[in-house]
Amino acid sequence: MDILTTIPVRLKGPDSIAPLLQNVRERITRRAYEKFVERGAVYGHDLDDWLDADRELILKPFGEVHAEGTDVFVEMILPEIALPNIAVHIAPRQFVISSDPDEDGVQLCQMIDLPVEISLDSVDAEQLDNVIRITAVVAFHD
Fold first, then answer.
1. C-alpha span between 77 and 41 (Å, rounded)
2. Which of 60, 83, 103, 112 has an alpha carbon within 20 to 30 A of 132's alpha carbon?
3. CA-to-CA dists, residue 111 to 12, 37, 61, 94, angstroms
4. pTM across the whole model
């Protein structure tokens, strides 16, 4: 009988989202510029270079979101590659699931908008094999 073990996923607060996204944009920009130079510095393909760089460097797996009563659940199936330092960055109406870049420069970075505002101190995230499960409690305002 196999024993299934879940691994807690690091949680980071809302202040970590902007620096993460800025870093991702800078990495895509550098790679898009490299593509521009590799093509002989021919202008007119800026968007194509950006989109190609984004597809090459950033993994964006689909995350399924559903709410039941006072709980919000997110489940995301990750690609079956080693992704270092997976983290969930939490904000009142959004999760950003990320990893550090691997040895090839590939990185997980997916934003998930939530249908309701959540309580930031109620979030729990775990990974089982290549699935991340996140649970949170809906925030109640007086």
1. 38
2. 103
3. 14, 30, 10, 7
4. 0.88
Distance CA 112, CA 96 (A): 6
Task: Round to whole Å and give the CA distance between 106 and 57.
Answer: 4
Exposure string for 45-65, b = 16+ CB within 10 A, e = fewer = eeeebbeebbeebbbeeebeb
Residue 139 · residue 117 · CB < 8 Å = yes
* Degrees, nearest 5: CA angle 110-86-31: 55
* CB atoms closer than 10 angstroms to residue 36: 18
Per-residue pLDDT tens over the stretch 70-113: 999 999 999 988 888 999 999 999 999 999 999 999 999 999 99
Q: DSSP label at 15?
A: G
Q: How far apart are CA 79 and CA 67, in angstroms?
A: 25
CA distance 132 to 142: 32
Residue 139 class from Cβ within 10 Å (0-12 exposed, 13-18 middle, 19+ buried)? Answer: middle
8 A C-beta contact, residue 127 and residue 102: no
